[in-house]
Amino acid sequence: MAREYVFISDLHMGGDEQLTALDFEAELLAFLADLEERGGDVELIINGDAFGLWEYAEVTGPAKLERVIEDHPRVFEQLRATGEEIDITLIPGNHDYDLACYPAHIDRLAEFNVTLEPVIAITREVDVGDGADGSPLLWIEHGQQHDANNRLSDWGNPDALPVGYFVVQRIVAAAGRYSGRARGDWLRDIQSVAPMEELPRWLLSNYFYREMSPFLRAIVVPLLLFFNLTLLYLAGTILEVAGVVPSWLFTDNPVLHALGIADIVLELIIAINIVIIVVLLLLAIPLWLFRRDLSHTLDRFGVMLSGVRVGQGDQPFLNAARDVFESNPDVAVYVYGHTHRASLTKWGDRAVVNTGTWLKKLQHAETWFSRLPGVYAPSFRLNYFRIFPEGDRIVIEYEEIETDEPRDLTRFQRLVARRPPSAEPIPERTVIDPDGPLEVPQTAPEPDSGSGRKSVTADGDGSARADGIERD
Question: What is the dihedral of CA 85, 353, 192, 64, to 10 degrees?
Fold first, then answer.
């Protein structure tokens, strides 16, 4: 067993056309070089989605990994150098599920000193105390089996693909191929849109701020900015007609008339907005009736008007962690990725760690003007976790790698966007006692003995089971 474990995940290296770009290559190379320099009894574990193999549409099988190696030679050479000094272990996620389907990948990655374990989950011992039997375990997985849209029902079968694969192929891979046609390189950031239900709003936002004709935008923006003023003007006019307020307050306001041509422009904008409001109201009624009738018709045929929900929170993974703790009392830390949201949850003296992602993150930010589309602010949260023993306790350290914030927003976007909420802070250092209690709704029994490294494979239904295979 290693003395220290370092975790990263969800690098998503690879993909057609623009998706093969690696924004964080310099930071990743420096991170790996630092591990090489430190050396020692350390194991780097990449717990899934190291590669974006699903994002290739023109090549299949082992050729996908070869494309990644060709496109990122510096990264693989650094992996080779780092792997000479420390252990590097890789498990598949859903985006690089091919790694579990073709045994040739094991030997190919071994050429770069990377040990591929093509299983759903693995465990590692933490050598606390005197190192006797009963050392606490780390349970490590990517987590796709807890996501209904990415669950792999027949592990190792390259043809048993979940709905998430087809979503990636039809939407994400296509975005990579067509990214060069966009004004700016925004389309390749589709990988950073989470959850995928945000795609329509993200596309609308980028169309409005990037792809729309500047002349059309110059006309539309004032209409949108004055939309609330138009509603106020309409309400005021109705109150004037009803005799509730005097006529000089809105229609005969002397201050507005004193503006001259500006008053004419303002009245023109208000008039256009009134026409738009009337048209929308007229369309809303038949569209509502149409949808209601369509819903009733589909209901008679047993078809529901509902789509596939792609995004989800972390609750399914927290539920899985609870089950692991309760059925495996020697597990002290549950490590997963997949959701791209780095976090650390402490349940008494157990911890749940989400390793996050190194991809660019897009966060929806409201604008200062409510009628303008929201802006998707880009940022990076390059992070890793270290887990190691300290006496008879386990220490989890979290560190973020400093990097320049991407300057992907246009001037107009920066002008109108509010600052998005700050990311949830993660403690830099967390200490747990593996003999302490598990504080979840149902308390798990005290840890018992266990030894060796274990690999976990999938049963036919995709559930995990421990093989109990001991490895050096």
Answer: 40
